Amino acid sequence: MELMVGLTKCLKKNLFDVSIRICMVQTMHYTRLAEVGKLETPKIQGKYDTGQLFLHRVFGYRGVVLFPWLARVYDRDIPNKRASQDDANFNHVGKEVKGRTHTFYQVLIDSRDCPYIRAQTEAVTFLGNQDSSRSLYAIPGLDYVAHEDILPYTTTEKQPLQHELFDKFLMYYPDKDPPFGPQETLRAWQKKNHPWLELSDVHKETTENVRVTVIPFYMGCRESQATSVFWWRYCIRLENLGDLTVQLRERHWRIFSLSGTLETVRGRGVVGQEPVLSSSLPAFQYSSHVSLQAPSGHMWGTFRMEREDGYTFDCRIPPFSLESKSEDPGSTTGVI
User: Fold this and answer.
1) How far is CA 165 from the centre of its chain?
2) What is the tens place of the pLDDT at every residue in 54-73?
3) pLDDT digits (tens, 9 = 90+) for 196-227
4) Cα angle at 301 between 299 and 305, to 5 degrees?
5) What are the pLDDT digits (tens) for 138-195?
6) pLDDT band for position 285 (cuts 50, 70, 90)
7) Parallel, antiparallel, or unpaired for β 62-75 and 201-207?
8) How many other C-beta atoms can be found within 10 angstroms of the C-beta atom of residue 109?
9) Confidence band (pLDDT; 50, 70, 90) for 238?
């Protein structure tokens, strides 16, 4: 089945959106369809190999798998025996949630699709190498994708993806399936940056048909003469599972540090935007950062959402831990 022709009914709309984005990258003056490959059946069991080309099920971009991560997913929507005992607690901070192992993938995003993605494409950041530096360095076009969001496809092109790291990390092997395999550069980069790239915990919760997914990452510690500052980044995805359009209006965070402090943060929107989640564009993803003067802490909060019929509600952000890791003093981060 050709990639631009069709899919099953549940995927037709997503596929159509992808094809339009691809065509708009090629020309802003007119629209034309161009075949980029042929879809394969998504894997129900097993993992995708390094070099697997795919379309993102939600955001529609073209990408390639670099390597997998095994993460613990804490889904607060899944009932458990103690859930009913904690329903009175609005933020569900004390609710016991059992983690389930799930596969995610480190991927590269095709740079031609980046302008049309409702997600930050420079979300994976690293601290500067100097101990006193607070500078953040981003690797453009790097993302984390859940197994169920991978729509695999094949192509006969030797250069199917445009990304500055594609040739550095992958090599073409015409007799392999997929025909792209890892170079030693990729293995070395993965090993060196493993502590800062590692995806270990994922947290999910749904309120009024709006699902919030949070993935925290430890970035490292920066020390001065007086204090030690620990840094984390966190990736948040909002997805509208209902039929009515909703818009994010405000954010409200509670940040607890092991040092004993509790900080409250309120503000309009997120990362300078008040994203609209509609049936045609149901998802939005962004990343931000937090620092503590303690090696661990917790975060939780709410997003104030406004529905198209005027109804407003607080969408819960699932509580998540901020945990530090031991560091190699001689290591550098983010360098290719």
Assistant:
1) 19
2) 999 999 999 999 999 999 99
3) 899 999 999 999 999 999 999 999 888 877 88
4) 150
5) 888 999 999 999 999 999 888 999 999 999 999 999 899 899 999 999 999 999 888 8
6) very high
7) parallel
8) 24
9) very high
Query: What is the identity of the amino acid at 89?
Result: N
Distance CA 330, CA 182 (A): 26
Q: Write out the residue limits of the CATH 2.60.40.1470 domain(s) in the chain.
A: 40-323
294 versus 17: the higher-pLDDT residue is 294
Q: How far apart are CA 226 and CA 155, in angstroms?
A: 56
CA pair distance 71, 12, nearest whole angstrom: 30
**Unique residue bearing structure tokens 């995708």:** 48
Look at residues 130, 133, 134, 172 and name the one whose alpha carbon lies nearest to residue 155.
Answer: 172
* Nearest alpha-carbon partner for 242 in 276, 278, 209: 209
Tokens of 137: 């360095």
Integer-rounded Cα radius of gyration of the chain: 21
Please provide the CATH number assigned to the domain covering 40-323: 2.60.40.1470
Tell me the two tokens of residue 24: 């708009």
- Residue 298: enclosing H or E segment and its boundaries? strand 296-307
Give Cβ neighbours of residue 223 (< 8 Å, ≥ 6 apart): 131, 132, 229
CB atoms within 10 A of CB 105: 24
Distance of CA 105 to the CA centre of its chain: 10
Single-letter code of the amino acid located at 97: V
> Which among 296, 145, 127, 300 is positioned nearest to 222, based on CA atoms?
127
HSE of 253 in the Cβ direction (CA atoms, 13 Å)? 15
Place of tokens 């030690």: 228
- Report the greatest alpha carbon distance in the chain: 63
- For the chain, what's the residue count? 336
- Residue 332 pLDDT > 70, yes or no? no
Q: Is residue 168 within 8 Å of residue 183, measured between CB atoms?
A: yes
